[in-house]
Specification:
The protein is mainly alpha-helical. The chain has one domain (2-247). The protein is 76% helix and 0% strand. The chain is built from 12 helices and no strands. Helix 7 packs antiparallel against helix 12 (224-247), helix 8 (137-160) runs antiparallel to helix 11 and helix 8 (137-160) packs parallel to helix 12 (224-247).
Length: 251
């Protein structure tokens, strides 16, 4: 058991070191979210009739945080491909620890870096004038962590099936953009066409965005208990699939 915990900690620490050493990655990952907040959040303030008090910037901030968590988490899966390319993955797979521990360590590391990015966006939004109504910081961090682990696990699953980093980026971009735009991050689901509302119910990010929106500004199109339950279920399922996919990688 101690060996498994040490492996998880080592992989978690490695993900953090790699992230913070790549300063361009940290800065680049915040460029698009800042654009959405600073340009769309202020420029489209009168474009939507909001079913809540407050302005459009306050409405989209939880959605942008959700986007950052998803982007940062999904692209953590590319580390698996980099490790495979440079030989570190093979050394990891032959280590005397279970592959489940390897997946958990990578998932925790990716989730931590994604949460760091989400917190930075939250601070930027605060300085742009967003008034948060956070009832519980611990609940916020727990929910952000669950969303991040869910998407890191999805990224690891995709990476486990591939060997080309460019192909990984194409597939993840193909998944990320529909998930983001269907989640209600930029517009109220209550005013969306019926077909979009139905499609959004199959999007895990929808429940992540609405859960964050409930915690941060006190409004949500979906009850928070439903969001929490769905995100919990998706997280468990995606971790299980990631472990199963990782177990099928040949040494």
């Amino acid at each position: 058991m101690n060996r498994e915990i040490e492996a998880i900690y080592a992989l978690w620490k490695r993900e953090l070191i790699r992230f913070f050493r790549a300063k361009s990655r940290v800065i680049g990952s915040l460029g698009m979210p800042f654009f959405f907040l600073a340009i769309l959040g202020t420029g489209l303030s009168n474009a939507f009739i909001l079913p809540m008090e407050g302005n459009y910037l306050e409405f989209i901030t939880p959605g942008i945080i959700g986007m950052v968590l998803m982007f940062g988490s999904m692209f953590s899966g590319i580390v698996v491909l980099m490790d495979r390319q440079f030989g570190f993955l093979k050394e990891t797979l032959v280590a005397p620890v279970s592959r489940a521990s390897i997946v958990i360590g990578k998932a925790l590391g990716g989730a931590t870096t994604a949460m760091f990015q989400g917190i930075i966006i939250m601070l930027i939004a605060f300085f742009l004038g967003v008034n948060f109504q956070i009832g519980s910081v611990l609940l916020l961090l727990l929910f952000m962590f669950m969303v991040s682990v869910m998407f890191v696990s999805l990224g690891i699953t995709i990476a486990s099936k591939m060997e080309d980093m460019h192909g990984f980026q194409i597939i993840t971009n193909f998944l990320i953009m529909p998930l983001f735009f269907l989640s209600g991050a930029l517009f109220p689901l209550s005013t969306a066409p019926e077909i979009l509302r139905v499609a959004s119910m199959f999007d895990p990010l929808t429940y992540g965005v609405n859960g964050l929106r409930h915690i941060l500004i006190g409004y949500s199109d979906i009850p928070f208990t439903t969001c929490f339950a769905v995100i919990s279920a998706f997280t468990v399922v995606f971790i299980a699939i990631a472990i199963w996919s990782f177990n099928r990688i040949e040494e």
